[in-house]
Aminotransferase class III-fold pyridoxal phosphate-dependent enzyme (Massilia eburnea), 509 residues
Amino acid sequence: MLRCQWPATMTPISSVPAAAVGLRMPKPATRPAARPSMSSGVAPLVCSSVALTQSRWRARSMAWAPGMKGSTLGSLRISSSASASAASNCVKQTSPAAKLIRPPARCHDSRPTGKSIAKLGLSMSGTAATASSNLDSFSIVDAQGDVLHTADGRTLIDLFTAHGTVWLGHRHPDVRDALQRQLDKVWITGGYATPMVQEMRAAMNGFLPEGYLLASLASTGMEANEQALRIARTLTARNGAVGFAGAMHGKSFFTAALGWDNGDGLAIPQVHRVPCGRGVDEAQTLAEAGVRLRRGGIAAIFVEPVHATSFGWEGGPVFYQALSALAAQHGALLVYDEVLTGFHRTGPSFCFLQHGVRPDIIVFGKACGNGFPVAGVAVRDGIAIAPRMLLGSTFSNNALAAAAVKATLSCLRALEPEARVRAIESTVQQQLLPALAEGPIVLSGKGAMWILTFPTAEQAAACARAVLGAGVCIGFHNRQLRLLPPVTIAPANLRLACQKIAECCMLVS
Ligand SMILES: Cc1ncc(COP(=O)(O)O)c(C=O)c1O
């Protein structure tokens, strides 16, 4: 099996000639000077030997949208001049960062940091450069707040947060305590009433934008989207759905067919995936959606408000308003999948508020239980939910999940999340945009959700590896790195993590 082998003796990247590792050095005149690292003044970057499986790369690339052009709201586009020849010198991505996460082996009884790593007396220099950095061998034994600790003694600032689930930071004490209290009462009742589910329902209804009510909890975002489809199908007595290429809604047969098929290429006749994203005109996307709606039989249109798995694409408000009008005109329900964008990730409680629309159904997940596996569906208050509209799966609406959701909502309320998200947005932009100027890497996103798109998957993987080696955990897939910092991240840690990312981007671009 081909695996990416790291040299027995690790060499700081700064002491390796750039050409020797296939990296193009930044032009001194146009790039800021390298910033000192947090504790040692030396960026602990490492580089690997080469083990590229070209066919595997090609297979991965095919699962993603083809080449991008143009820019979207909140994104910076810089023309690509990167050489494809870099591919042969870059490292192979052996696994998505998701595989790096392991349950913590031990827990401390301490609060989330809210402090910088430096203040905690932790160091992420040195060890990051000298420990094994094969992604498959990377094991996290402890996580707290915005930092992760690995089995081999490294400390990482977490901008991955397990796909954006740990929004309040790892092991948030209030969520943990709420779960602990519920563990001592009742875990699951299979749908029989519990006080905790009722309390959570009240809390969720208080959190949702005016005019929306919780329909049901589910266990995953994918299940919640299936739930939304069932509600729409029951209400409209239709079977079809419209989705948009590049949107992620989950990995079940239906949800994958909607927008992002995870490479399996399967299709369902009643599910219509409309071309969408960079390189596709919004008017064309709208026209294609209109054609599908006019043919009839469409129960719902599914929207991911920011395509966080596909280059951070987001349409303009007019696009979403036109879509909403189309849905209403043809008697279809508008479903907003806020699994990633919900709970203030882009600023307001839900991203649809920025689009000036009122979806019929909101799907949420990820952040709502701060890492506890829970998701859910809310509906416009004119929609009456009958039991036959719900999936009623075994674990839905269990009391433990409800305790996690209720505690997460209560913490969020106390945090002033919108101000925090604004501060995160401005730090990310201030730290990354100057470093990316005149380079080929594109930064897209908003709030606490950012995507870096590279000219090639090999460059993205090389950068991801360097970023991990520099002590920052990020998500990556194919040509993209994704940054999903927790809303509670210490400003100094965010700044430091962004500095490291900027340095790594400059090395691979
Ligand atoms: C927008 C969106 N919807 C749905 C899902 C699926 O959620 P889950 O993985 O919990 O099934 C995801 C997962 O990444 C997502 O980003």
In short: Residues 163, 220-222, 225, 248-250, 304, 308, 337, 339-340, 365, 375 surround pyridoxal-5'-phosphate (CB under 6 Å). DSSP finds 14 helices and 15 strands in the chain. Residues 407 and 498 are 30 Å apart (CA to CA).
